[in-house]
Amino acid sequence: MELTSSVFDTEIMTVPGGHETIVRGGRHLFDRLPRALAGIERIGVLGWGSQGRAQARNLRDSLAGTGIAVEVGLRPGSSSEADARAHGFDVGDWLDVAGRSDLVLLLVADAALAAHHEEVFAALEPGAVIGLSHGFLLGHLEATGGRFPDGHAVVAVCPKGMGDSVRRLYEQGADTDGAGINASIAVHADPDGRATDVALGWSVALGAPYTFATTLRDEYLSDIVGERAILLGAVHGLVETLYRQFRIDGDDPVTAYERSCENVTGPIASAISDGGLTAVRDRTDPAAFDRAYAAAYGPARELVREIYDEVAAGTELRSVLLAEQRLAARPMSAIGGSEMWRHADAVHARRAAGAPPVDPLTAGFFVATMTAQVDEFAARGHAWSEIVNESVIEAVDSLLPFMHARDVAYMVDNCSRTARLGTRRWGPRFQAAYEQVALPAIGSTPDPSTVDAFLADPVHEALAAAAALRPKVDIALT
């Protein structure tokens, strides 16, 4: 997809079948931010969740000395007010902050935004820019016949990682220029022709190493599907399945945990981050990997396709909103109650001895599921930058390192409400597919065409191009 800017230099990134226009980030570009954000004197960050907390701090630091103020807006009675003030922000009522800001970032929870967006829209000053970091609101407006207000630019900057990653890698960027989380931008409405530069300025200020273009709808689809598949839902179903299988095969609990969860969050994630998807196969028994990959790819692709259809049809959005109504009186229970999670501390204590070897069964299942999501996104026409960031880079450079530091169940129980609901719905579906379809097929001779298609998949070229745009900096979790 094409990007043009009067402020930032664009570059051509070669991808399978063509090219994309991208913008590299870096702190050396911060002096261009006042030009990109021309006419913006105050940025209102509505919400102090994972993204709000990180983005407000990054924006304030990047814009220091420019005269552009960053203020936090919260709903009355918010429990986050004390923390926002402790971080040095002026905090006001969210509608008041929206009414006095030139760029209003809607970073509150999805369900709250769906319920109260009309109040926010009514509070906006003429010409204020509406900023999103997720396309959920677009999906809600389409489903309910609503629309964004006329006369306002509507832009999205969507970091390809959780809020903690956005902040921590930004801080590491003080020592390694360009360290950060990649981001996509989408310009949904541009009444005065300045929206692209505003979006790029916002993305650069967040510390994005490279920024690529998408549409708000494509972002919504890929993000919601990814949460339910390889980023969270499938990972949870996968490690629960394989832990049980390794226990059935005779492993003690700690070894079974190492071969399943620890393998995914540790050596498999590191191999992909360092060398791409084929690097995982290279670090284990290729024949065993191939059998596992061939057994898991088909059922994983079927599920990703089903998730995509349900997200596109609005079913997932409706399920989130219905669940939010129920959860007002009945909170969600935690999922980390199965037997495997009791052994996490023992596994973590053994890390000083070094990472375990890549397990071919775990590797084959995980890479097959990741590739299934990649291939489904490609078949649906998503841009390659979006495909590799939403399916691979966000997983191995943001989410899996945090899962490694804590565990998968902890991450599921502490992610956004939308992601948590989707993971609880689809994780068991992946678990059933692995147990009932993939594992029984392990003993069969793998279809060589499935493995050949993986080795020739254009994702390898696209991922290599994207990986070259970011300095190699492992996220600091302490």
From TrEMBL:
GO biological process, one term: isoleucine biosynthetic process
UniProt name for this protein: Acetohydroxy-acid isomeroreductase
Cofactor: Mg(2+)
GO molecular function, one term: metal ion binding
Pathway(s): Amino-acid biosynthesis; L-isoleucine biosynthesis; L-isoleucine from 2-oxobutanoate: step 2/4; Amino-acid biosynthesis; L-valine biosynthesis; L-valine from pyruvate: step 2/4
Keyword Oxidoreductase on entry: yes
PROSITE patterns reported for this sequence: KARI_C, KARI_N
Sequence similarity: Belongs to the ketol-acid reductoisomerase family.
Binding locations of Mg(2+) 2: 223
Domain KARI N-terminal Rossmann, first and last residues per copy: 23-214
Transmembrane segments: none
A Pfam cross-reference name: KARI_N
